[in-house]
Amino acid sequence: MQKIELGTITKPQGLKGEFRIKQNDGVISLLSKLHNVEINNQMYNIVSVNDRGGFLVFKTKEFTSIDDVEKLRGYKIYTFVDDDTFNAINNNNGYQIMANGKTIGRIVQVDNYGATDIYTLDNGSTLAVVPHLIINVDDNEKIVTVDAEILKGVIV
In this structure, are residues 11 and 2 in contact, taking their beta carbons and an 8 Å threshold? Predict the structure, then answer.
């Protein structure tokens, strides 16, 4: 298992225990795989994560009010992923992108931006890696399977 720093908690968001984080580069592709996060050596269950372009909004099962999360300002937030997922997401140059069994292209470059990762494909297309885009990563076959409906909105 790899411990990954997702970012830093900046402030509460709303009144129901949600909070913002300033995300680190390269973490956007992990969002669809998040179930738990660690804050101050304590584990919390993820209810939702929303990408708000430049920052993320988290909701956990355990925090239910603004008062619960106010004390978290400045804390780092972490998650754990298995070694295969970590390696696939971070070293996926050469992986084939597929949607509905159809090849979209092969990844030739990965650019890490604050809001999202951008994959450049061998056919000249680029796509933003947004939450829930990646359905599966097959390291043996070097295939990244993506959601075809989400892909329509993020490929250029």
Answer: no
